[in-house]
Amino acid sequence: MTFKKISFELFKSLSSIIPNEWLLKHTATSVIHPFYHLVTQDEHIPLHIKHLYKPKTAQQFEKDLDFLLLHYQPLHWDEIGKVQAKKGFYLSFDDGLQEFYTTVAPILSRKGVPAAFFVNSDFVDNKALFFRYKASILIEKLMQNQTLITKDEVRRLLNGKKDSNPINAIKSIQFESKDKLDELAMILEVDYKSYLIDQKPYLSTVQIKSLMAYGFLVGSHSVDHPRYASLPLNEQISQTDQSLKYLENTFGIDKHLMSFPFTDHGVRKGYFEAIQNIYPDLISFGTAGIKKESILHHYQRIPMEEFNAGAETVIKHEYMYFLLKEIVGRNTIIRS
């Protein structure tokens, strides 16, 4: 269990006692950036998400919005980073999933809340599938029949490691070895292309253009969702540059937004300097919660699905965690 998870368990009982206004005052944080990946219409979770995290339902998401709208004002993109006299929030969604069009956008439009959504250029129009989504589909297949793969095959895929649990083995596969998921798909007779055609997990070009027409902003979430800190600098820059150029060419975007896939933890100052030379207007987002950031025009967001709790509990924990880390001087991100 991580230190952040331990702190959540310790602090969650205090979330109903400590007023939000007190936390705002003592953290001097008037603007927050909550973000989600998926909001489902009901309790049904798609197979590509099922074994990764538990998303909010539309009902839970509306409750989250009600809390946010009670304590903050929704911000537009051009207010991000400006000195705010008002308490505000800017909402965003990662991974470019089709539920943003079918479920989320109607709720946001009804409540008058602007938002940005971030897409991976390789996945738009369901052209390819995120490697972690492949893992979730494979895990579901194995849970239905764990005799479909042998321990020897698992060891081979793990390069000789002794973990004989195939589900743990699949969960351990990272971006750099994602081809192993394609090998497993052949063994387990899983057809990712058919899944993409049948389920259409991602937004289409037509849907994105429609969302933009309604005032939602689209930004980059990289080309194919790697962990940036694991890539050399030139590949980090290429991931962002290629995906932003795709958005320019396909949708004519003139506002450059980008959110880091997985996390921006470990991304060095040199990346930000290089990418801002190419895109001086770029606004980017991390996933570290409420934290001070040393990079200009880069903002940390609050993961709203992290602890399977409502907005009040999640956001108040972020404030309390911020104050806790302030004591030991660790609530500011310094890039080497």
Q: What is the gyration radius calculated from CA atoms?
A: 20 Å
Fraction in beta strands: 5-15%
- Regions with pLDDT < 50 over 5+ consecutive residues? none
Let me know the number of strands: 15
Q: What's the arrangement of strands in the largest beta sheet?
A: 9-8-7-2-14
> Structural class, from helix and strand content?
alpha/beta
Order of helices and strands: HHEEEHEHEEEHEHHHHHHEHEHEEEEHE
CA-CA gap between termini: 27 Å
Largest sheet: 5 strands, parallel
Mean pLDDT: 92
- How many distinct helices? 14
| C-alpha geometry | globular
Helix content: 40-55%
How does this model look, in words?
With 336 residues, the chain is α/β, with parallel strands linked by helices. The chain has 14 helices and 15 strands. The chain has helices at 3-11, 20-27, 47-50, 58-71, 99-111, 131-144, 151-157, 166-171, 179-188, 192-199, 205-213, 233-251, 269-278, 311-327, and strands at residues 31-32, 34-36, 39-40, 56-57, 73-74, 88-89, 91-93, 115-119, 217-220, 257-259, 283-286, 292-293, 298-300, 302-303, 332-333. A 5-stranded parallel β-sheet has the order 9-8-7-2-14. The protein has a 3-stranded parallel β-sheet with strand order 1-6-5, covered by helices on one side. α13 links the parallel β10 (257-259) and β11 (283-286). α1 crosses α14 (311-327). It starts with a helix and ends with a strand. The relative contact order is 0.16.
SSE arrangement:
Blueprint: H1 3-11, H2 20-27, E1 31-32, E2 34-36, E3 39-40, H3 47-50, E4 56-57, H4 58-71, E5 73-74, E6 88-89, E7 91-93, H5 99-111, E8 115-119, H6 131-144, H7 151-157, H8 166-171, H9 179-188, H10 192-199, H11 205-213, E9 217-220, H12 233-251, E10 257-259, H13 269-278, E11 283-286, E12 292-293, E13 298-300, E14 302-303, H14 311-327, E15 332-333
